[in-house]
Amino acid sequence: MNGWKTRYFPVLAEFARSGGHVVRPEMQELWIELIGLPASVILRHHEESVKFLLSYAEPEDRMTLVHRSLLFITELLVSLRLPEAAAAEEKRDEDKLLYNAGAIHSEHIDETTSNKFETVLQHMDSGVALFDAAGNLRFVNVQMSKMLKAPRKALIGSTLFRLFFHESLSRSIRKHVLRIYRGLALYRRYHDEFQDAAGRHLLVSISQPDELEGDYLVSVKDVSEYKLIEQAAFQNDKLAMLGKTAAAIAHEIRNPLTSIRGFIQLLNPYLSEIGKQEYGRIILSEIDRANDIIYEFLNSSKPSAPMKQKVLVDMLLRESILISESEANMKGCEIHCENFEPGLTVAVDVKQIKQVLLNIMKNAIDAIQDMIGERKGRIDISARTEGRFAVISIRDNGKGMERAILNRLFDPFFTTKEAGTGLGLSVSYRIITNHGGTIQVNSQIREGTEFMIYLPYVE
Predict the structure, then answer these.
(1) What's domain 117-222's architecture?
(2) Does domain 309-458 have CATH number 3.30.565.10?
(3) What number of helices (H) and strands (E) belong to the chain?
(4) Could you say which DSSP state residue 456 is in?
(5) Per DSSP, which regions of 286-417 are E strands?
(6) Where are the domains of the chain?
(7) Residues 70-126: pLDDT tens digits?
(8) Alpha helices of 188-276 — where are they, by DSSP H?
């Protein structure tokens, strides 16, 4: 019976936004629903809708909205052809409406009487939107508008169905809106977290408090920073667990290996007599390899404390490139280096930082191998300052990585290589954090990957 009320506001909002050029069919449908209603009822609801319309408008737009809302109600009432007996009452109501609209406008223009609570809501760090029970968008705050990357005035009054195809919203955002709607339709409530196209972690919550009389409150919060803290804590927990495991098993394995190595050395003269000295050499080399694996395993959980010395970043890069260049050339890959600040100095353990650089360069060369047939391999290395950090960037044009792999990149024993141990990057991560720095990774499938190493610089 009151379905016209839910239809009224979006039609009015679209009329005021467009100047009355694009809502003729919707007005016609609304006109059919309003036939037979008293003018006083229509005007009362119109006044409430205008107040709501002005509550989200910018100060410089409010006079225009008031003017267009008056055109809207005038055209609507004229099209209804009300009985002449109600004409006088209609005229009085229209005059009253005009007076009230002017008062509303003045009230909103006057900044000293603006609603402080609405100002707080508008500038919250969470996005907030309000839908009525019919699915019409009644309110959007500034932060929600930024998250949707669309102006508020283009969204207010839109139906939920229209948001699925809204020209101001990107395709990825419309897909998320549809996903949220499906969840709400199935469970009548919604609380979920997802990652958007820009990599932000967004926490979405939809509720229907009794105080809102059937309206739906939608809140969206960017929790990306909390996610980074959570991932760092999770990473530290895993490395701590790895350290305990390594400490427990290293002693038990190394002792028997040492005994075996000693006895093989005692048997070497006998093996030489029977012409089997090669067996002894192989056994000793395999024992040494097992010891190296154990050492790397221990180092992955707790690299030795860095022996810091001041060194030029330029020297670190050039020496590391010199070591990797021959392998890169053999695999059809070029290495280019550009130092934007030749005098940039850091206090680091040279051996450990070279280990990190060589490991990342080797990974870049391996990533390029799958793309050699499509384009020439290239690794770009650069150094610059950012805040109080020296930033070393290593970018390749290899196959890139999916987001699921990026999220696990520094996990111990996680690897995408058939012969990999999964320890190289976890060791690198711990070395950089021990130096007071951090590592960030950006990657796009079939475009390449960039590692950015942040180290505190010194004068």
Answers:
(1) 2-Layer Sandwich (3.30)
(2) yes
(3) 16, 12
(4) E
(5) 309-312, 333-339, 345-348, 377-386, 389-396
(6) 3-113, 117-222, 233-301, 309-458
(7) 777 776 776 665 443 344 344 444 444 444 544 444 444 444 434 555 666 666 777
(8) 224-273
